[in-house]
């Protein structure tokens, strides 16, 4: 039993299931009219939310989670001429997940300081760039879908955040 599970009583799989279920509810009515997104994209976006829900901002074992879109700009956009950055699909995907998390789940907070339309474009570009450089076609197709539907997923994450805030006293983890 991991330290995390022992402390909080839930596993990574349960966290992904939580976000996938809630995100599925959030997009079920809107999906047919606004975007042609897939179940795989929904699970992928839920896994991003689950990852950031379980990762400390001060985690030094991997690239730390950003605190704001300024951090994303400094790490990925400002350094955009860095050849390693623009050619590495893993780094581009990480950049895309950071933008989706902040410009999506924390959209209400970020809109006060940032141009979210521009960050939606940048986030989609990161996923698109990652998909163009991947060798595995199935993964590349998934990231192309997330890139094409980036705004839909960002708004869906924002709506999920609002729902979870509104229902915070109604959440049951068992």
Distance between the termini: 18 Å
Shape: globular
Number of strands: 0
On the 0 to 100 scale, the average pLDDT is 84
The major sheet is characterized as: none
**Strand content bin:** under 5%
Order of helices and strands: HHHHHHHHHH
Helicity range of the residues? over 70%
- From the helix content, strand content and strand pairing, which structural class follows? mainly alpha
Using only CA atoms, what is the Rg? 16 Å
Low-confidence stretches: none
Q: How many DSSP helices?
A: 10
In short:
The protein is mostly helical. Helices cover 73% and strands 0% of the residues.
Description:
The model has no long low-confidence stretch (mean pLDDT about 85). Helix 2 packs across helix 3. This protein has about 170 residues and is an all-alpha fold. The radius of gyration is 16 Å and the shape is globular. The protein contains ten helices and no strands.
How do the strands and helices of this protein lay out in sequence?
Layout lengths: L2 H6 L3 H23 L4 H16 L14 H9 L5 H5 L1 H17 L1 H4 L5 H18 L3 H12 L1 H17 L8
Helix pairs in contact: 2-3, 2-10, 3-6, 3-9, 4-6, 6-8, 6-10, 8-9
């Amino acid at each position: 039993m991991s330290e995390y599970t022992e402390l909080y009583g839930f596993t990574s799989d349960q966290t992904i299931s939580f976000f996938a279920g809630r995100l599925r509810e959030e997009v079920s009515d809107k999906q047919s009219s606004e975007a042609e997104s897939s179940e795989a994209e929904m699970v992928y976006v839920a896994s991003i939310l689950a990852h950031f829900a379980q990762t400390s901002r001060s985690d030094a074992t991997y690239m730390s989670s950003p605190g704001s879109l300024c951090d994303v700009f400094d790490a990925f956009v400002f350094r955009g001429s860095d050849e390693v950055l623009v050619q590495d699909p893993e780094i581009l995907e990480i950049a895309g997940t950071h933008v989706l998390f902040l410009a999506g789940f924390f959209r209400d907070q970020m809109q006060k300081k940032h141009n979210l339309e521009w960050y939606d474009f940048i986030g989609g570009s990161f996923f698109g760039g990652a998909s163009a450089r991947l060798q595995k076609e199935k993964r590349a197709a998934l990231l192309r879908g997330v890139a094409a539907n980036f705004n839909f997923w960002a708004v869906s994450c924002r709506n999920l955040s609002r729902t979870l805030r509104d229902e915070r006293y109604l959440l049951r983890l068992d």
